[in-house]
Specification:
Helices cover about 50% and strands about 0% of the residues. It is built from 9 helices and no strands. The protein is globular.
């Protein structure tokens, strides 16, 4: 019973945040310098994608250089040498849009827009507007959280809730299901109570 209520609450909160995401992403892109021309609309998707330079630069596969005018023309004209497929990694997935052919995982999933989107959905819309951390401090907790929790013991309830939330996010976002999810959720909810 409590697990169902927790799931409903999490789904509702995530739904609210996802609904506001379209407006937030348009706003973030319009804040870029230089300002996109024309401005990106949160209401109208026509003229976006590869037909708007600001969005095209973000979704251009890492294998191509969007700054090259020929690349732009060939992608927009569906040239067979410039195909964009589901297997193409878009530039926005990488930190600072840089792809390393020698180490393709370097910077992957650390693109500023991707991190902001993740924070908007999974933490809060206000956390997505915070300044982006640099690589060295990315994994550290903020000082105010470290000082507040230093010396405190974590309880079984803390760990149980973290495991429950992680499992729920994994199942919801990535479609990964745990064969024992029902029994595990019951165990976790018992631990929480």
């Amino acid at each position: 019973m409590h697990s169902i209520q927790l799931n409903r609450g999490a789904d509702s909160a995530r739904g609210d945040n996802a609904a506001s995401l379209k407006l937030a992403v348009a706003s973030w892109l319009n804040e870029k310098q230089p300002t996109p021309n024309p401005a990106i609309s949160s209401q109208d998707k026509s003229g976006c994608g590869f037909y708007h330079d600001a969005t095209a630069e973000l979704i251009c596969p890492v294998d191509f250089n969007w700054a090259d005018k020929r690349t732009q023309d060939e992608i927009r004209n569906y040239d067979h040498n410039f195909q964009v497929t589901a297997h193409s990694w878009p530039t926005f997935m990488y930190q600072d849009g840089r792809y390393d052919r020698e180490d393709p995982t370097r910077g992957l999933f650390k693109g500023a827009l991707l991190v902001r989107t993740f924070k908007h959905i999974f933490t809060s819309p206000s956390s997505a507007s915070e300044t982006q951390p640099n690589e060295e401090t990315f994994h550290q907790e903020p000082l105010y959280k470290r000082s507040r929790t230093s010396g405190e013991r974590r309880t079984r309830h803390d760990d149980g809730f973290r495991k429950f939330k992680l499992r729920h996010e994994r199942e919801t976002v990535f479609g990964i299901e745990n064969r024992n999810a029902k029994s595990n959720n019951k165990n976790v909810s018992k631990t929480l109570l």
